[in-house]
Amino acid sequence: MNELTAIVDSAKAAFADAATPAELENAKAVFLGKAGRITELMKGMATLTVDEKKSRGAAINLAKQAIEAALNARRHALAEAELQLQLQAEAIDVSLPGRQRGQGGLHPVSLTMERIEAIFGSMGFDVAQGPEIESDWFNFTALNTPEDHPARSMHDTFYVEGGSESAPNLLRTHTSPMQIRHAVQHVKKHRAAASALDGALFAGDMPEIRVIAPGRTYRVDSDATHSPMFHQCEGLWVGENVSFKDLKYVFTDFCRTFFENDDLVLRFRPSFFPFTEPSAEIDIQFPSGPLAGRWLEVAGSGQVHPNVIRNMGLDPEKYIGFAFGMGPDRLTMLRYGVNDLRLFFDGDIRFLSQFQ
Ligand code: PHE
Fold first, then answer.
1. Sheet harboring 320-326: ordered strands across?
2. What are the boundaries of each domain within the chain?
3. Stated pTM of the model
4. Pocket test for ligand 1, best of 134, 144, 275, 330 (most atoms within 8 A of CB)
5. So what's the architecture of 108-355 in CATH?
6. Deepest in the core among 137, 174, 207, 215, taking most CB within 10 A?
7. What's the CA-to-centroid distance between 303 and ligand 1, angstroms?
8. pLDDT (tens digit, 9 = 90+) per residue, 81-138?
9. Could you tell me which residues come within 8 angstroms of residue 256 by beta carbon, excluding any fewer than 6 positions away?
């Protein structure tokens, strides 16, 4: 049986030499194929006697089984090697940080708006919202700014359809129209209960008006510190005994809380607005830091003009108050040290993501 052992050995050697499954299948054909060595031996048995066939057949079968076993072992080895290669090629570094989903966030000016609302909310102020397309009445006339008033020229804006020919609707130039809109609603709500005469100015009892009105405003203006669309936040406090001292207290408290700086200094600089008398520009000064020593204007303010109180439906003999209007864009620039207003409106993600 040396011959059979030799065949088995050469099959094992050929299988070991096969480096790929295809080569292995070729090698298999040489030994187990239709014209393979084992098949040849089987055919060669035709001339043997029955007894010879028995023992010869058994021996060939053993050789065949040995070759098949060697073939299967090599198949497994090659498949295993291939799997290892593939696993290496597709290796996953589980220590790498995952690809994260981009997270959105609030715009810096929105963050400021939320901050303003939270601070004034803690002082008992409501928040009111109003239209950006405004009538001439609410934007100007009701605010003691009649048609030929020179203060109007400072509020050049965008006129839109609607209204009358001499007084078209416009994109509001400030949030001050909300003083009237909100107060009128407030008075309407409370005068019914007090059953005052309709049409007459209200001098009955009502809860104080304490409100802020944040929102978008528009003017024809565009440079590093002015944008045709910008934000304002109006404040209004009207009651029977609300004075300039309350304005100073409330606004000082607001600024110090907003900038988280108890040493912030405020200055009320005499100014003019048609709808307040007296009026003041409010400046702030930081005691230290990059902006120290400079007066920075942050709001217009004043005691609400009696004509405006009347247009709210209130009797100016009984009701008095103050109003202010500040610029959240500017407050945001000061808080974060941004020097170009236009960055807020460019929508550049590299800038905006710094505030998250
Ligand atoms: N509306 C004024 C402006 O836009 C600011 C202001 C509001 C002034 C309220 C006084 C009172 O310039």
1. 126-127, 209-218, 229-239, 320-326, 296-304, 276-285, 265-273
2. 2-89, 108-355
3. 0.72
4. 275
5. 2-Layer Sandwich (3.30)
6. 174
7. 11
8. 999 999 999 998 889 888 888 888 999 999 999 999 999 999 999 999 999 999 999 9
9. 262, 264
Tell me which amino acid residue 303 is: Q
Shortest-distance atom of ligand 1 to CA 235: 9
Which two structure tokens, joined as six digits, stand for 100? 């994260």
pLDDT tens sequence across 305-336: 999 999 999 999 999 999 999 999 999 999 99
Cis amide linkage into residue 316, ω under 30° from 0: no
Write the pLDDT tens digit of every residue in 275-307: 999 999 999 999 999 999 999 999 999 999 999
